[in-house]
Amino acid sequence: MEASSLPAALELVSGGGVGLSPEKRAVLWSSLLLLQRDYRFERVWFWGCIQGVRGAYYIAEGLGPDRAAPRSRLYSLNCVEWSLLPPVTKDMVMQAGRLKGRFQGDPSFEYEYMERNAEDAERLLEDGKEIDRAVGIVPRGAFVKTPLGSVRENRNFEGLSLMEAKKLSSYFHFTEPVNLKNKTLLEKADLDPSTDFLDSLEHDIPQGSWTVQLEKGGTVVVLRSLLWLGLTFYHVPMTKQYGYVYFGTGEKNLDLPFML
After folding, report:
1. Which of 97, 205, 230, 256 is deepest in the core (most CB within 10 A)?
2. In sequence order, what are the residues at sequence separation of 6 or more whose Cβ sits closer than 8 angstroms to the Cβ of residue 104?
3. Which residues, in sequence order, are CB contacts of 185 under 8 Å at separation 6+?
4. Residues 178-201: pLDDT tens digits?
5. 3-class SS at 22?
6. pLDDT above 70 for 145
7. Is residue 58 located within the same domain as residue 20?
8. How many domains in the chain?
9. What pLDDT is attached to residue 66?
10. d(CA 212, CA 220)
11. Could you tell me the residue range of the domain that residue 15 belongs to?
12. Does residue 125 form part of some domain?
């Protein structure tokens, strides 16, 4: 969610029990604005918090003019001091997949390695991409793709209508599309290439992995993931207010197919 509107945005997603104390919100908000100034980011988004056994990792993202370009990611242990994370490589994902146990919240902690076969390693690589793909959500029409391929905020976007905001098909994953590439030319003919260039949440597997609810007296639409517990997205219909945040352990709910 946008750093500049962080206190109000966190209040809108607090219905599910996620969030930070008022003191922590104020500290985080101030530090993110300083982060944007010091690193000269065009925008800073608060990605969320991964809760470890001993502490938590707070994650922020720095964006440039092209919103679809690779983002700079930073982490903090206290919401004040931030460290830049290196770009994730395939080898890093493979090595991380061999670690045993939950996140500790301590960067100096030494984890145990466990052996994995090639099939497990490939699955872990896909899972590592999946959480970031699941977290980044935007309403349909909030961004446009230019003829040159860059992605910009749509200045004409004034929010979804209440009817559209209650549909899962009105929300997209803000990452490289996968399902869209598999569509036929006939299916793509009905899409607007400037706004429909991302994958819709309605095609996520398993079906039923998202809940859509009206909160705050019916003025806010809130989406929550049952696959990545702690992932919350909000949108105030007929306004430009929307955002997402993740507060969880970084673990996938593997029992979901049996719960639906």
Report:
1. 230
2. 52, 53, 54, 55, 111
3. none
4. 777 656 554 556 677 788 888 899
5. helix
6. yes
7. yes
8. 3
9. 87
10. 10
11. 1-86
12. yes
